[in-house]
Amino acid sequence: MTETSLRVGYRVRASELVGRNWLNTGGRQLTLEDLRGKIVLLDFWTFCCINCLHVLDELRPLEEKYSDVFVTVGVHSPKFEHEADPVALAAAVERYEIHHPVLDDPELDTWQAYTARAWPTLVVIDPEGYIVAHLSGEGHAAGLESLVEELVAEHEAKGTLHRGDGPYVPAEPTAGDLRFPGKVLALPASNTFLVGDTGHHRLVELEADLTTVRRIIGSGTRGFADGGPDTAQFNEPQGLTLLPAQIARRVGYDVVLADTVNHRLRALSLETGAVTTVAGNGVQRLLDAGNQVKARPVELEEVSLDLGGDAEDIPEDAAPRLEDTFLGTDALNISLSSPWDVIWSTTLERVVVAMAGTHQIFTFDPLTGGVDILAGTGLEGLLDGDATAAWFAQSSGLAEDAHGNIWVADSETSALRVLSFVTVNGRSRTQVQSAIGTGLFDFGFRDGEAGQARLQHPLGVTALPDGSIAVADTYNGAVRRYDPATRQVSTLIRGLAEPSDVLVDQAPVESGGEPLLIVVEANKHQLVRVPIPKEALAVDEGASQTQRPKTTVAAGGFGVTVRFSAPKGQKLDDRWGDPTQLKISSSPEALLVSGGGTGVGLQRRLVLSDEVPEGVLHITARAAACDGEPGGEIPDHAACHLYQQDWGIPVILNADGETELILDLRGLD
Question: SUPFAM superfamilies from the xrefs (predicted)?
């Protein structure tokens, strides 16, 4: 860990870019030689990953400012099976408005050549074809800009910098009135439907036929602005929820929506079309590591006994849990992170928010402005139990059932989760359970008993009239059904193009008909009505795991080192002690004998079990740096920056394995 420039004194030649195909190049197959003379940034990403989407937005200003010398190359290295589909990748490149070349790397050839270990990973190559930086995670825009300035000056002086247009060639657009719609909301009073027209950065109200546009809300330009229906601006809006009439009258708006990339909750008056902001300051929230403590055994014993458990089941080294769930009532000054869906909870009498960017579930009270964390520590994964100790992974869909339970489409764990609200011994408890799903790297297309059933990156969920739950199983192109009474999973519809939401349409019931399903078919830019089949399909196409190379490690003592080098013009912010932090856990928990938990510093000694054959090490690193020169004081009112990355490192135990793991937060590999 240093405070020096990112650059090093020795040179490493960049490996050739190998993959199946190139996108955004007009059919040209690029090589590193074609990029010689440019500063090249390799962005290793996968389109399911919320952190990767954050980086795409961080890079846009840099790409625009240095368009004549700087070329981003997206290296798409898929996590899920569906992401290896070239048609799905082309749709994602269009959906996220990616304006740089993208290499399709389905076999992870280039990923492995550059020793990437996490999404996103960034590698900077200088104009002569040498690697100069290896970065992980988000928040590197400022450091990258200073590095680009340094490289421009150096290579302009050497004559090795070539100014001019890059190799980007835009693809032909495919959208119509809607462009990659995200979520849909029924408006019963007008018998219309309000759609988050995500790719057009606006809302669209559709007539009952689901195709005729009644009105458009938002200018259609990516940005942030409150105002009337013609001037308001959004940035990839997603979920929407309708407030109860009595609440709407008091607050002056009817709909709350998740303005995902603006990291805000917005509000809409259906009468006037006026848009306002009700929560979020636009600054992306990062993981609240300081808001977690190791739960004291007495606390977990208290919870366990309340719920009928046994105190002997409480581990001595308890899981991290939230220390404080109340974030305040000044909602406009609270940071959010990629809110993806919202639902009104009749039990809590609040808006429940799927906060995909921090892997948590929030609530928002329209009457008081109060913002709370309802569930999730912020650790990414699948862990059930008390809401303050639970883990989620990019929750993207919410629905309430007739009993007031909140169902969650937890996309990165390919899971269906449920939040239930119980009162035990006079105390209110929120409990989290997994109905379908087993972990971050497990997915598939399998019906049957829920314990062995599999989904693939679901984004939407709704409660069906019979009490079962329908899931928009996005990457399987299907709508699945889960029956809580029998714990059986079946398939209602398949052959869809990335369904991102599903909704029950009760309108036909009024004329004596059966309710229908409305499915948002994102990659066909449309909403479709389909019947709820009497006889569901039974599909078994198997269970899968994300195939990434496993690191062979030895049991016993094991070292973890995360390298961090503050960008030029910044220094570590040590005014209040060590500004770095490591958080380490494992799946299964038994893999890690000791050394887990949260602590300062970027080095840690672990002990790995010799009784667990393989598993995953979950590592989160953070470092805080502020503008200032090494050795000097940090100026008053200096801009400060938080760097963070989460790694899930698959490991296999072998006596001849490695005894140390070195990761780069900012450094050279």
Answer: NHL repeat (SSF101898), Thioredoxin-like (SSF52833)
